[in-house]
Model the fold of this input.
Amino acid sequence: MGIAIPLEDRKQKATGLDTLLELIRPDLDRVNQLILTRTGSDVTTIPEVANHLISAGGKRLRPMLVLATAGMCGYRGDGHIKFAAGIEFMHTATLLHDDVVDESEMRRGKIAARLLWGNETCVLVGDFLLGNAFKMMVETGALRCLEVVSTAAAVIAEGEILQLNAAKDTKTTMDAYMAVIRSKTAELFAAAAEIGPILGGRCQADEAACRSYGMNLGMAFQLIDDALDYGGSSAQLGKNVGDDFREGKITLPVVLAFRRGDEQEREFWRRTLERGDIRGGDIEIACATMRKHKALEETIERAGQYGAIARDALCIFPASPWKAALLDVVDFCVERVY
Done:
């Protein structure tokens, strides 16, 4: 089942990451090499687990934001390489931890590491990656950037706990859910985008603009993921379609469908998500209920609104290939659903 929900006046143009990838290719190659080097350890299980996830692909979107905003802000040093690699290590660590908490079976199109090495090993390898992330970033001596990233690490942990508290709770409000994804997902996007202007010695207005860009991009990215879980494909998601449903996750489409449904429909969500009583055909019923109440359409529309805010945040920067590429990233994140 695929989603094909047209938005009015959407421009018919090729969008994606190609332009940005061309701009950052040399730096991204250095980041990837650093990632491979820093996953090495005499404890052979560590590189095995880390490389299982890292080598599975992933878009490297967060480190790309570090490199791109550094380029847009005229940075000429090497610190952005270590920060980009460190951000990717942080992201990978959260994925390892998430899969344990969520009991996921698939990640980036591969069997989840926890099923191959066990929960305990994956948690500890995640801790190893976090430690190495901060070790790399400390080597740059950029204390202001370290403050941004360390704050993000704490906020992300809070977001994980907020999500855990909201799991299987159909009473979760839209405001509560938005707080979860702002902390859990968007915060790392914001930190990644803010590093570039700090390294480039730009003014606080530029730092704030890049942070706003990253934060709203992250919100849009997560909301599209929420919609894809009920109407995308495993290839688009890098996980099984319907995983959020089977894991009892409360996402925006669920919040909307639950609020707008009648009592019989609400009881369906309580049975499946709160009590975990999922039967054959329930995922189809969930998708049909969401279509009935336009929950997926509204989730995608809200993602577009956050994307528009992200684009506006960059208006204070003069035209450049870097700025144009960062605007294309917004299109890529929002239009993955089509």
